[in-house]
Every structure is written in structure tokens, then in C-alpha cells.
């Protein structure tokens, strides 16, 4: 069996898909889960950028300007709830929709609601449900951005 080279740390940018439905930042320390989410969203026309953990998410969120973030809870360096707390504390990202993709225990749901999480998706998830949740959050963000006069997913600078 031949060995394959893996990418080093850093975000993975997707190819640009014609008719993109929105940009999603997928944050999970598990490479297989990240890839699974990425592929399923790209197949539905989303542009996907990935991050390995919450700290990397915060490093790139202003450059990437996603419409939605999917976020695992248990990650090294900075967990999902710490990431959400920092996103909500930042005026540029406080209204950015966040979907937790995790085991979704009762404690996680309660902590997520308290932190300002917009949606929850339990692992293992159905790909169609993932797409529905992300699409609903992108559409909701687009409507709220439209009221503020900024184009969806691009913020105000």
C-alpha cells in the first residue's frame, strides 16, 4: 500500500463551485469528520473552508468571512464553547450562525444554548440533515444581512 502525503497544519480551501450557496467554515479536530462534512456540503454547492480546532477557526474567520460555522465541541487548544464565546464577544462575528456538530448530550445542548449556538446536529448525522441545517442558517443570515444592507457572507469590512 502506497503512503499518501497529508497536508500540514493550516486550513484547506475548497475549489470554487459555480452557483455557490454560501461559504461554510467547518471546524473539527477529526480529519475524517471534517472531510465528510466538507464533501457533503460541496456536493450541494457550498464553498467550504476547514479548520482543525477553535483556535485555528478564530485565526482565519475574519479572512474567510463564512456565512455559517459548523463546530465540534471537544477539540484541543480551544473547544467549541470557548470558540463560540469568543465569536459572540467580537462585534464582527457576534451574529455569525454557528451549528454544533457533536454528540449533543443534554449538557452540550444546555451549554450551547447559553453560549448562543444557533443549531445542533448530533453525530453520527445524516448528510441530508447536515445540508438542511446549514442551508437554513445561511438563508437566515442572508435575510438578516439584507436588512443591514451588507451582502450575505461578506460582512462590513
What is this structure, in a nutshell?
The chain has helices at 31-43, 54-64, 80-89, 106-115, 127-148; strands at 12-13, 23-27, 47-51, 68-71, 98-102, 119-122. It is α/β, with parallel strands linked by helices and 157 residues long.
Distance between the termini: 48 Å
Number of helices: 5
Low-confidence stretches: 1-18, 147-157
Strand residue percentage = 15-25%
Query: In order across it, which strands form the biggest sheet?
Result: 1-3-2-4-5-6
Number of strands: 6
Helix content: 40-55%
Round the mean pLDDT to the nearest integer and report it.
83
Question: Order of helices and strands, N to C?
Answer: EEHEHEHEHEH
What characterizes the major β-sheet? Answer: 6 strands, mixed
Shape: globular
Description:
It is a single chain. The protein is α/β, with parallel strands linked by helices and 157 residues long. Helix content is 42%, strand content 16%. Strands 1-3-2-4-5-6 form a 6-stranded mixed beta sheet, with helices on both faces. Helix 2 packs parallel to helix 3. The longest helix is centred in the last third of the chain and has 22 residues. The protein is globular.
